[in-house]
Amino acid sequence: MSRVQLRAVSLCFWLNMLDGVDILSISFAAPLLSREWGIAPATLGIVFSAALAGMMAGSMLLAPFGDAIGRRRVLSLSLLLIAIGMLGAPFTSSVQELLIVRFVTGVGIGGVVPTMAAFASELSPLRRRSFAVTLVQGGYPLGATITGLLALWLVPMYGWQALFVLGGALTLLSLPFVYFMLPESPEFLLSKQPPEALAKLNRFLVAMGQEELTALPTRPTADTPHGAAQFIAALGSLFSPPHRAATLLLWVAFFMSLATLYFLQNWVPQLTANAGLPDSQAFLAGTILNLGAFAGMASVGYLADHFGLRRVIASYLGAGAVALLFFSYLTSTAAILAGLGVIGLMQGGFIGLYAVGARIYPAGIRVTGIGWAIGIARSGAVLGPYVAGLLVASGMGMAGSFMVFAIPLAVAALAVLSMRKPELQTGARAAAPPATAAARN
């Protein structure tokens, strides 16, 4: 990878770390916030869901404009919305105001996540794309882990507002880096050919040590839709014969994986405490789970580049289902914590689904495809913790809950195995021909 590619992927990784900070700030602020404002648990659950609802809206409505006006513009707008929402939270004085700023934050995050997946794919060499996409998405659990560690120091000393000020300030400071250091996607420039596309593409090629292009390839002479019509056309393309089956299977895999993932992230600390472990070890359990997820997210892309996305992702998700089923056999504290690390590691297979979306869709509908898959899957993110709450309320413990949530992971693994796209069968070296000279490196 050239220096400009390494810089771009590193910046995408940093932005996804910030997503981890922005999403989970409310979780670590909740105990103090609920005491100060007297928020009932049911109402607090609505506050948690506000960001998820915003993420669904951002993924489905904001992110697709990355296919129309450019990845970098949508990314900049999304970061601005996140900064407004995060920096606005400390100034709220009611639950209603907090719901609004959390929804705005979620919309921005919903625009960032699929755009980052497309950026990481299109700015990386073809043979390293799966690794780049999954590594970038792995920034989220690392950011979540760091947020938990910072919360131990910031919240007692400066109050719950400090977490939001920190996340909002870092997001705002990242905007100039996006503008000056992140080039527009070469595949977008080639497919849409906006003003000055040739000059922008040549600057990217020169930075990579490639020869400049004398002209852009000829575009089809037929009229192409613009604005809302372009958005609708891109959405309709997801269900055209070449993509229909893969789209539906990708939605199923995302939905089922997110149901289990958000169950684990929200309930593992509480279930660990319910099992009789002290609070310090309950916090440690959540940290180990996230660290395992980061390791899984980084490794799944590397393996997929060598053995194929479909096989590796299905193996991770299937192994995660097996680990959940056999968790009840772990009795000692050390074994339980180690088991959670393994479950987190296997959950890394979920992040490979971003690479699947980046691989199966062409550049013209790539952000739309990933964004809608994530948006549909957010309903699974809401449903998973809710179902878990019902299970816990009925008296089911950690082992029983894990057995129930092994089922969605198994279904996700089967959905991935059912995908028959050639791009997913082998490593990236055997994938479709690259779209640009840069991709051949």
Notable characteristics:
single chain, mainly alpha, Growth Hormone, Chain: A, 16 helices, 0% strand, globular, disordered C terminus
Quick recap of the structure?
This protein has 441 residues and is an all-alpha fold.
Describe the structure.
The protein is mainly alpha-helical. The chain has one domain: Growth Hormone, Chain: A (Up-down Bundle), CATH 1.20.1250.20. The protein is globular, with a radius of gyration of 21 Å. Helices cover 76% and strands 0% of the residues. The longest helix is centred in the N-terminal third of the chain and has 35 residues, at 3-37.
Give the averaged pLDDT, no decimals.
79
Q: Roughly what fraction of the amino acids lie in strands?
A: under 5%
Distance between the termini: 7 Å
Counted by DSSP, the helix tally is 16
Radius of gyration: 21 Å
Please give the number of β-strands.
0
Shape: globular
Order of helices and strands: HHHHHHHHHHHHHHHH
Overall CATH class? Mainly Alpha
Whole-number count of domains: 1
- Low-pLDDT segments, ≥5 res: 428-441
